[in-house]
Amino acid sequence: MNLHSDALEIPAGTREEKSLKWWETGTRPDYRFSLANERTFLAWIRTSLAIVAGAIGIDQFASDLGSPQLRLVLSVVLLMVGGTLGGVAYTRWARAERAMRREADLPLSSLLPFLAMFTAFLSTGLAWLIIDFS
Amino acid sequence: MRSRDPGLQPERTGLAWSRTGLLALIVACLSIRIGLSAAADLHLIVALLLAGLGCMSLHRGHQRSRYVAGEDVATSTSRKFLLGTSSLVMLACTIDAILLLIRHL
């Protein structure tokens, strides 16, 4: 099995390269890195799907939680965050793939602190709701 | 016959696709439950989208595993396939959110 990256015909930075799409430029990354990037994409998709499951859970299985309006707001916010993460999964994959093709540094993302804060606020809020309304 | 990758990368990626597929099928089942219980038939569209995503992912996982067994399936990532996966998730979330709002407001 070939573990090394295959160089493409057209090197980065030339005139021919500018007419190509970004996913055709530079050198093809080592397949192990491509697959790792793909698994990271899938991990984000699973996070997104888990948040969607949470939204459906609040809508369908938590009829005693807070008021109907509050449950609606929570569900819709969760669905919006889930949808955003689903989209961001692709842009993250694309940015990492592009950086690897150009042999540049992998991009940083502000998504991780956002998701951590969102999860922390959500768990605190839900815990408060459960204690307060039980 | 190709040699086995000591890092088991294709196998791990195949399993990641399968996990994602199974989760998508579970969320599809939850959407069916909304569709049936709330008499909101349109939620079944979301269930259908997610079930499609689940089956596609499971199939992809199967393809990745076949590579380990020596069959010549490309190791490079299909950009369009990822874009499709991403779009399906976004579409399902948007439809779900709109239907929830219509049902409650």
Describe the structure in your own words.
The complex is a heterodimer of chains A (134) and B (105). With 134 residues, chain A is mainly α. Chain A has one domain (15-133). Chain A has helices at residues 15-18, 31-61, 68-101, 111-133. In chain A, helix 2 packs antiparallel against helix 3 (68-101). The longest helix of chain A is centred in the middle third of the chain and has 34 residues, at 68-101. By secondary structure, chain B is an all-alpha fold. Chain B is elongated, with a radius of gyration of 17 Å. Chains A and B meet through helix 2 and helix 3 of A and helix 1 and helix 3 of B.
Give short descriptive properties of this protein.
heterodimer, A: mainly alpha, 4 helices, 0% strand, elongated, B: 105 residues, mainly alpha
Beta content of chain A comes to under 5%
Q: How far apart are the first and last residues' alpha carbons of chain B, in Å?
A: 60 Å
**What is the number of domains of chain A?**
1
Instruction: Count interface residues per chain for the largest interface.
Output: A-B, 42 and 41 residues
Strands of chain A, count: 0
Low-confidence stretches of chain A: 1-9
Regarding quaternary structure, what we see is heterodimer
Rg calculated over all Cα atoms of chain A = 21 Å
Helix content of chain A: 55-70%
Give the topology string of chain B: H per helix, E per strand: HHH
Instruction: Provide mean pLDDT of chain A, rounded.
Output: 85
Largest sheet of chain B: none
Largest sheet data of chain A? none
Tally of individual helices of chain B: 3
Low-confidence stretches of chain B: none
Q: What separation lies between the terminal Cα atoms of chain A? A: 60 Å
Rg from alpha-carbon coordinates of chain B: 17 Å
Shape of chain A: elongated
Structural class of chain B: mainly alpha
SSE order of chain A, one letter for each helix or strand: HHHH
